[in-house]
Amino acid sequence: MNKEKALINFKKAQSLVKKIISMLENDEYCIDIMQQNLAVIGMLKSAHQMLLEGHLKTCFKSAMETKNEAKKNRMITEILKVTRWSS
User: Fold this and answer.
1) 3 state DSSP class of 78
2) What pTM value is reported for the model?
3) 4-56: per-residue pLDDT in tens?
4) CATH code: domain of residue 69
5) For 63, left (φ over 0), alpha (ψ -120 to 50), or beta?
6) Closest CA to 75 of 65, 38, 49
7) Which structural domain, as residue segments, surrounds residue 57?
8) In sequence order, which residues have a C-beta less than 8 Å from that of residue 12 and are 6 or more positions away?
9) 46 alpha-carbon distance from chain centroid
């Protein structure tokens, strides 16, 4: 399931953020810090994508199969909110 894979990515990102903080505190080379930061960004984007995919296959799909137009519109609005920044 994507949820478990996303959780692994979040934990790896958390560990790398701690490393980045330590690198900054120790005045390490800026490029090395930025490379670690890019790795964190990649992990977070990947986790976000996994969560989005899971949501689309479950909650969103279920909402779209109902006749409740308000619920459908609410789900569409939510999806738009969480996908704007990831482009």
Assistant:
1) helix
2) 0.82
3) 999 999 999 999 999 999 999 999 999 999 999 999 999 999 999 999 999 99
4) 1.20.58.1000
5) alpha
6) 65
7) 2-83
8) 43
9) 6
